[in-house]
Amino acid sequence: MHECLDTTATVLVGFERVPFIVHKGLICRYGDFFRGAFDGRFKEGKDMEVELKLDSVKDFALFLHWLYAQSVHVPTTSEHKKYAVYEDVRKATTKSKLAPIGSGHAEVDSPLAREGIEERSVSADGDLENSKNTTAAEEFASAAPEDTTTKEISSTVQDREAEGQGTDDEDPGVDQKEDEQTQDCLVDLFVFADCRGVSGLRNNTMSLLTSQRDSDWSLLTEDSERVGRAYSSLSQGSAPCRYLVNEAACWWGADLADLGDYPTDFIADVLRAVLVARSEGKGLEPMWHDNMCILHDHVDTAEETACKAAKKGD
Ligand SMILES: [Zn+2]
To answer: Which pLDDT value is given to residue 266?
Structure first.
């Protein structure tokens, strides 16, 4: 274990280049992408830095928490608020997806401004820390060339800063929205884990999503945009897509939302699931109740057996 913890490296995430310090040996244990990103970049006497421009700061912070705690952290209300600026600017200015596994440095479609209000880092134990205060527009103006896109981004950040003034006060509707933010965030985290080939994080994210459903969380499929994002980012055979189909088949009622807002493939998959159940004379049940591992991606049967044994011991 010690050899995993003897060298640290800096990962600069997003266009904001938010620095995260991580133990190199530990992160390289989790997937070919990180091994490829770090191998060969370390030179004696030099700090190792890797840039992941297309990654979301929020996803990466949650990944690091999982890396050190081996459990998925559910963001608090204040964490959702603090990450919202990164996410809003990112969504507004990039249409790109994460680079595929093994690509090393990600290429960017368009520049993003720094969040500005506070730059954050994650320490070795996964705690979020404020590390710097910066004005986003100032940072951006000095770092990026002036063109139409950058003006739009600068304007977006300034708007967000103005909106953010006084947002420490609790929003009356925030509790209701928080679950939805968390659901979005977990779907995004799965997409991150899928792109970066981190199967343990994928599995833990699915376990959390299903346990929250069993605790009467609202349906993930209530949000057609969320379903669309999953279907456009993941394969139809992926655990989240299979989960979404099963959830809709089990729980959707007569008060359906506008089906036209959902991906056609998703609606076809839901219909197929209902028809298959009917032809087999079975009722529809949550697919994970008998065997959670049906939504896991285990490397071998030994890992699956250990996973089932651990679940029985809960
Ligand atoms: Zn399992």
So the answer is: 97
